[in-house]
Amino acid sequence: MTSIESVSVLDGGAAIQLSLADGSSTRFHALWLRDNALDGETRSAGNGQRLITLTDIPEETSIGSARSDGRVLSVTFLPEEKTVEFPAEWLRANAYDRQSDEPAGWLSQAIETWDRESLATIPTGDFAANATDGSALRDWLYAIRKFGFAHLTNGPVESGALIEVVRPFGFVRETNYGRWFEVRTEVNPTNLAYTGLGLQAHTDNPYRDPVPTLQVLYCLENSAEGGDSIVVDGFRAAQRLRDENPDGFSLLARHCARFEYAGSDGICLRSRRPMIELAPDGELIAIRFNNRSAAPITDVPFEKMAAYYHAYRHFAAIMDDPAMGVSFKLEPGESFIVDNTRVLHARTGYSGAGSRWLQGCYADKDGLLSTLAALENTLMEAAQ
Ligand code: OGA
Ligand code: ZN
């Protein structure tokens, strides 16, 4: 780790500048440092939560003095005359003094986008190992964070087994479709998923707000002709749209689409959200795409509607491009999980002799990422 070489107080105590051993330097504001003080009066030693509010800190807070022995920075804040220590490692991990010139649609470094050619091997885990082996579970969750999807093999061919796919990392999200739902041909289907029709690549339930952020599809029977699964990286598709048609990308990002599901009695789910969702600083955070549940779009000005539809068609063509999709046929006892804010799933139509029976359920990504981060910490500590 880079140590602190020297400290200088800037702007009459409004900020400090640290010069680091690797030749770089970084600045911190007095108020930011005071707000993030790590001492026991500011943060609970037990749970790490902040004990004070911002208004407990004087607005005129400044740095009276600051020094470092290389490993730790010691700062005395005025007018409180309070001295707080910050480890150099902590300061490095939380530094914010950088220029950002990322184009709209940038992605976190934890993510790697893919298409059919680049995803040479499908990330795969083992059903039993996930329940018993922390490092196997960590590797599987890591793949989901990175690629937005993973396969799971060697599960039991038993109704409800999909709940055990979720249990090692989180919680099922129950919806009007139940704790889980049956994906097989029905006589009066409440959803076109419950037919033998092919389904264009889609994210599930964009008519919910918030959407379920994870989906599991678990195979119990798949002897029918067809019924292959296809997954598409929606983030790669959005970046392709941005590169091929920047104006189209920004139309889909800046205007809300609408989605609706009212296919069974007593249910009328509606949302108003963009197909490409960006954070205020342009980070690509979610894709919503579903031909079956797209409702009339009424939030695009008349003058822009033709161009919006052109962009929507272009986005759909990218989703349908065989070069984008990774296909496989689930065998009984196999399943896959998708980050439903990123990776679309599709199936080819099926018919003829044989049968096809999948079960599906939803869960949430915050719990998955939390389990992954906690496992990463424990396994790293154990290795030291
Ligand atoms: C679904 C769905 C795909 C399949 O139920 O959400 O998209 O392979 N099913 O049946
Ligand atoms: Zn679906």
Describe the model.
The chain has about 375 residues and is α+β, with helices and mostly antiparallel strands. It has nine helices and 23 strands. About 25% of the residues lie in helices and about 30% in strands. The strands form seven sheets. Strands 7, 8, 9, 10, 12, 20 and 23 form a seven-stranded mixed β-sheet that branches. Helix 4 (about 135-145) crosses helix 9, helix 6 crosses helix 8 (about 300-320) and helix 7 crosses helix 8. The two termini are about 15 Å apart. Bound molecules: N-oxalylglycine and zinc ion. The site of zinc ion (ZN) has 4 residues, from loops.
Task: Please give a handful of descriptors for the protein shown.
NE0471 N-terminal domain-like; 23 strands; binds zinc ion; Double-stranded beta-helix; binds N-oxalylglycine; single chain; four-stranded antiparallel sheet; 25% helix; 384 residues; seven-stranded mixed sheet; alpha+beta; 2 domains
